[in-house]
Structure formats: structure tokens, C-alpha cells
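ERR on first pass: missing label on line 2. Operator R.T. fixed the label and resubmitted. Corrected input:
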Amino acid sequence: MADTAAALDLEELRAFVADVLDVEEEDVTDDADFVKELGVDSLMALEVMVVLEKKYSVKLREQEMKEITCLRNVHDLLASKLGK
Amino acid sequence: MTCWPRSWGNEVTATACGPVDGAVEVVDPGSPGKRPARTAVRIDATERVFAGHFPGFPVLPGMCVVECAHRGALATLPEPGEAWALMAVESSRFTGPVLPGDLLTCEITWSREDGAWRCRVAAATPRGPAALVRLRYARDGGPRPAPEAPRGFQTPGAPSAPPGNPAHRVAITASALKRLLPHRYPMLLVDRVTELVPGERATGWKAVSGNEPWYEGLPDKATDQDHHYPWTVLVESWCQVAAVLATRDRPNPDVLSGQVMLLGGITDARPARPVAPGDLVEHRARLTRRVGDTFVFEGESRAGGEAVLTVGRMVMTTRPAADLTAAAPAGGE
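pass 2 clean. output:
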């Protein structure tokens, strides 16, 4: 339910993703590539997906996992989900 | 709110029991904020877990790597004292195998936060990184949140519970477990599975006994605290119930061929109260998500009607056995 979900804030999302990936917050720039620059593997990508679903009370489809490539894309993906 | 005096963790001494036989040595006690502490432990081929993890292909269980990180953390805690105990494995991620003969080193970076000590442990072998573990310690284990009510499970005694002694409910027996899991003594840590809903959840039992090998070296003067079940072994036991759920449709008890189930990581695992010989532990694992051959689980463990452990998230995946065997040094034992 949207009313129980956390509001989408880019800086909060940055801190949250940095925590899940166990990297420094400043390394998670808007466009830093999760795989190439932050060392994210398929397992971590799935973890990010699961924790985002829980935090924002959204359901992501398997193919949407491919969009989890950088913070900007994650933000846009969540924004489109929460906007519905 | 319940506080456990001298809870799990701080009682790990030279005589305390655990799944790792090798002694963790402090190489550099470090200095918080300046330089990390360093520890090392030689993982000999004689480590008892290797016999059952796995037969024909010895590889150190991920939770034993966490055990080494935990012991290194206790040995280098910047504020020594009796009262510090483990509050949580905030995260652990396994990135490379630890094999017989390896020198497992830990680089431990401490930080003080909200009255607790946290550390980030980078564990490595000469081949490269093995794991990244974050642990949290507080005095007396810190305040513990009231355990959440379990979801999706029948509470024993609830009106909807099936009649009869629940001990007689066996979904998967001991012999059937050996056809599903590659683990063997002393690392087959689930005795029976009592409920299994494919793709959803599983419940399994682990009867804790003073006859388990972890207790072998305990001297007669060992205290009750010294007999607390190693929590890393308890987490591994919970993971095996989850593994049954993951492998049920495609069992592979042979680790030398086909696909091998691997522990990817555990996040937010919290001890709630110590487990001791005589406890019957009920593990509950729920499948949160599956994508391809990667599974995400969550759950908890209970004993005597109380929560003993909660697991926020566990990731398990499969890899071709050849990838693992290729990591073993050529010509090695």
C-alpha cells in the first residue's frame, strides 16, 4: 500500500542502497554502474531488489531486476511503481 | 525487553566450544580510527567440519568463516570486558572458498556507535577475498526487541493445529534428508523436516545434544555458558532447513557433479537467547523470493516456546560444481 510505504527520496535511497551493498555513500553516485564500479554481483542485485520491495512496499518483476544498474535507474523504477 | 546476562559471544575463550578447531591469533591489535586489527587462523585439513562439508570435497562452511571473524572480533574488541556480547551479524557476504591448509586472515575495522561496538571484517585467503562480515556487539548483548510474531505458521496448541503429538509429524525423515543435502556428520545439522510447503516455507527440527563434537574439548570445570550452542552452527542449521526447501525439486547430494548449493550471504541474524544441550530447536524458513537459481529466505528459530534466533535475510544460490573444484589448488591434498 502506497500510504504505508516509505516516501521516495533520492538521498535516503542512496544511503539505503550504500548500506545494502556495503559501500561508501559517496561512491553511490547517481550514475555509478553497480556492476562495473561498485562490484555488485547477481546475488547482491537480487538482495537490493528484495529490500527495496520491502521498504517501498512495491512488487518488482524479474525482468525489472535488469534495471537495477545505477541509482538513477533504481529511483526512476521506484518512482514509476509508486506513481501508479 | 529481555537482557541476557553474559549472552552468546563473550564466553568464547580458549576452552569454549565452537565449530573451528584452529586457534585465532591476534597479529595486530589495531587502533580504532587509525588502523584495523588483524587476526589469522590456520585452517588445517584436520578441521572436524571437513569430514561432512563435504565428503570428497572439503570446503569451510561460510558460518565457520563468520566464527573466525567473531573470535577475531572478541579478541580485538577495543574496550575489553566480560560483558560484551554479540548483538547481530549485520551482514555477511561470501565471495571465495576457504580450503584445507588455508591461512584465513581477518582485517577488523572497529567503530563505536550508539553504545555498541561495530566491526567490519574482511576475511581473506592467499587466493583472495573470502568474505565480508559486519558484526555488532553490546554490553550484555544490548536491548533486544521483542520477537516478532511468526507469520505463516501455526502456533503449537492453536485451534487449527492438527491433533496428536506434533513430534509424530515428519515430512522429511533423517534418511530422506541425506538424499536432499550433501552435508554429512558432523555438519548435517537438521534432524527432521516437519512441514514443507514447496516454494513457500519449511519447518525443521534440530535436537541439540551435549554429545555433539563441539563439546568434545570442554573441560569438566566448564560453566553453563561454556555449553551454549555455538550460534554460528545454529545459523548453519537454520540454513539447511532453507536449503531443503530450495533443493527439494532438484536434489543433489553429490557435490562433485552438477550444481552445488552455495551460501551467498546472511543479513541481520540476531541471537535472541542461548541454546543449550537438551533444547529442541524448531527452525522456520520462508522463501521471500526466487529468481532463477538464486533464493532469498527469511525466518527464525524457536526453542521451548521462545525465539532463539531471527534471520532477516539469507541468500543461497547454485553454481556448477566445476567452478568450486577449479578453485582448489592443483596438486593439493
